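Hi all, posting the design record for the shared folder.

TITLE: backbone redesign
STEP: 1 of 1
STRUCTURE INPUT:
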């Protein structure tokens, strides 16, 4: 059974959970919200496999409506089996906690999962987000990097908070699948990758190098890191200078440009294909 049912949005506990929607409180408590049954399943499955779990559950608390508890009984059972306190809440309380227009009735409070840069292990493929401000784009790049087999995703100090609710939702659980580094400078990120033998490229629409030409010349065959920049104005010159060069995705039609998430997908999958060639 749920340990308690919360029906008032004025409950101090509910207020405490709700304030995790703000970055200041997330950073202070090193906790964030995960919304929706699938994302919560991924968080529960992470468990001890998460680099930052410290041999304990990533999920710290679970809140769900009575209907959601019945619909997702397997999820509730998994949480209880992991020793996660589960709480039944009213629809009004769920609406207060949720950050989506149509809540799915399940929200988890999770501990931060990011790891220090020096704890990242062997790197074959990496994504660095520099000056990326849109949380939806950032989460999508994280999800794409995970799908392409990346070994780490680095959010620089000039980028959006990966624990932003929209970013977490856009990552579709990938936040829990691979090491994520937060808050380092672009210079430190590139220096680390170089130290572990990774060639680093800047993805830039104005780049003088063509992605396909770089791939055909075998420059993506070894360990590679990609630096992705701001949605509107790309990467600052000083960041580009840190890398081995600016690479553009060729556009064969009439489109002016590709959005960040699409360009990142092309770069990451092109690299993954090159690295997997016989």
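Okay, here is what came back for every position:
SEQUENCE:
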């Amino acid at each position: 059974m749920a340990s308690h049912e919360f029906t008032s949005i004025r409950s101090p506990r509910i207020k405490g959970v709700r304030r995790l929607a703000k970055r200041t409180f997330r950073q202070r408590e090193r906790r964030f919200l995960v919304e929706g049954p699938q994302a919560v399943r991924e968080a529960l499955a992470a468990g001890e496999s998460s680099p930052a779990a410290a041999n304990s559950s990533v999920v710290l608390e679970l809140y769900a409506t009575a209907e959601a508890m019945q619909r997702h009984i397997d999820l509730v059972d998994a949480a209880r089996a992991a020793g996660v306190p589960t709480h039944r809440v009213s629809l009004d309380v769920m609406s207060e906690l949720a950050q989506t227009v149509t809540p799915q009735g399940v929200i988890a409070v999770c501990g931060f999962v990011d790891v220090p840069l020096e704890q990242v292990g062997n790197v074959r493929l990496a994504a660095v987000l520099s000056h990326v401000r849109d949380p939806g784009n950032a989460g999508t790049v994280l999800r794409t990097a995970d799908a392409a087999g990346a070994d780490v995703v680095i959010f620089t100090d000039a980028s959006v908070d990966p624990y932003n609710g929209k970013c977490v939702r856009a990552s579709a659980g990938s936040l829990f699948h691979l090491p994520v580094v937060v808050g380092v400078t672009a210079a430190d990120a590139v220096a680390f990758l170089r130290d572990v033998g990774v060639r680093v490229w800047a993805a830039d629409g104005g780049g003088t190098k063509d992605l396909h030409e770089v791939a055909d010349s075998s420059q993506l065959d070894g360990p590679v890191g990609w630096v992705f920049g701001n949605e509107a104005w790309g990467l600052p010159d000083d960041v580009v200078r840190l890398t081995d060069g600016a690479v553009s995705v060729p556009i064969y039609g009439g489109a002016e440009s590709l959005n960040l998430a699409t360009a990142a997908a092309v770069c990451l999958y092109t690299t993954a294909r090159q690295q997997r060639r016989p």
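COMMENT: Residues 50-55 have pLDDT under 50 and may be disordered.
Let me know if anyone wants the other runs.
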